[in-house]
Amino acid sequence: MADADPDLTDADTAKSPALSSRITGSLVRRMIAIAALWISVLLIGGGFALDRVLTGAITRNFDSGLEYVLIAMIRSAEIGPDGEVRMIEPLGDQRFLEPYSGLYWQISGGRQEPYSSRSLWERRLDTSDRHDDRQLHTYDSNQFPEEELRVLERDVVLPGSNTKWRFQIAQSRESLDTQIRAVRQTLIPSLALLGLGLIILAALQTFYGLWPLRHIRRAIAAMRGGQNRRIVEPLPLEVQPMVDELNALLAHNEKQAEEARLHAGNLAHALKTPLTVLVNSATSQTSELADTVRREAATMQRQVEHHLARARAVGRRGAAQARANVRDSVDSVSRAVAQLYPDVRLDAAGDKALIARVERQDLDELIGNLLENAAKYGGGSVFVTVQREGNMAEIIIEDDGRHFARRPRPCDRPRRSP
């Protein structure tokens, strides 16, 4: 059995070299965009809340002034001998005497004609009964098309009268809106300038924070140019582990390259002597040339197989990322075995997409030995099943040869690789 890779398919294996060269964007732009988005959301939300607070405070201050005048109206109002309401003390603001000044008051109730300030002139405030004004009622009114009003009103029963009198005080919203616009004209540019400053600060922080990556790039370029063999520059704590792993990978690759050169040298030295013997035998034209060729060729073959086995063992150390399709290997080896044993029937079934963490050559050699034995010593029919068993790739090879019953020994127990 071999370790199965549940996340890979043949398509993924074929595409992996191309995927390694794809660029997914800039970290700098990504970090700046995230910072800018977050800053904008916070400033817009905070600005809206601050605008509500300041606007509410200005409006409440404006209403407080009108409420003070309304209370003064109620205190100075009384019922005359004719049963009509009147003001015993005039209100002190001169604007109540100027027509269309923007500040108005009015008292209405019963069948009496509304008693109003001179500033209203021929106009009258709306006295609809759509709401109960036993408590102070504040609202905005558009009853005058050319002038938007802020109105405060309250219903009061004066001593000596059973009539419910409505006291109203109104003022143009122009001064209130002017104050609100002044606040917003200061607030919006201030928040925009603050947001721009924060985004610039985030950009500078991003460039400064990612600057060590530029050092790593230059160090790798220097290694490729032969100036250095390792990255030795001091780096931040977050980057240093990655650099340590990169240095360890370089050391591992250098060790493998050195072992490969050593094996090549050993192989060349081992083949040098047999080749020299062959050349000398061929030159001397002795009668033992054929025996010499066979003997030395066998020696050379042993040397080649020996060094190839050692090279394959060294290569397996760096083959942790090797992947192979089990079913493809089974089909390939089956075709080769079928040519050696044409009278044997070979069939295979199972998962065609199962990937194992193993070198394809090793997997072919393993399956080849088992299939050749089954075809050679079986009864003429071999069946191969490929399936997943947990996190392992399981290969079952069955033949119809003779079965010898014997007592199992401890060494015959099947073992499974982790």
Average pLDDT, rounded to a whole number, is 80
What structural category characterises the helix and strand content? alpha+beta
Taking all Cα atoms into account, the compactness measure Rg is: 49 Å
Report on the biggest sheet: 5 strands, antiparallel
Taken as a percent bin, the fraction of beta residues is: 15-25%
Helix proportion range: 40-55%
Distance between the termini: 9 Å
Coarse morphology: elongated
Number of helices: 8
Kindly report the spatial arrangement of strands forming the biggest sheet. 5-4-8-7-6
Word description of this protein:
This protein has 418 residues and is α+β, with helices and mostly antiparallel strands. It is built from eight helices and 13 strands. It folds into three domains: 25-209, no CATH class; 240-317; 324-412, 2-Layer Sandwich (Heat Shock Protein 90), CATH 3.30.565. The chain has helices at residues 10-19, 27-76, 174-209, 211-224, 240-284, 289-317, 326-340, 360-377; strands at 2-3, 77-79, 85-87, 103-109, 112-116, 137-144, 147-157, 164-172, 324-325, 345-350, 355-356, 381-389, 392-399. The termini are close together. The relative contact order is 0.09.
Provide keyphrases for this structure.
418 residues, alpha+beta, Heat Shock Protein 90, five-stranded antiparallel beta sheet, 8 helices, disordered C terminus
Blueprint of the fold:
Blueprint: E1 2-3, H1 10-19, H2 27-76, E2 77-79, E3 85-87, E4 103-109, E5 112-116, E6 137-144, E7 147-157, E8 164-172, H3 174-209, H4 211-224, H5 240-284, H6 289-317, E9 324-325, H7 326-340, E10 345-350, E11 355-356, H8 360-377, E12 381-389, E13 392-399
Helix pairs in contact: 2-3, 5-6, 7-8
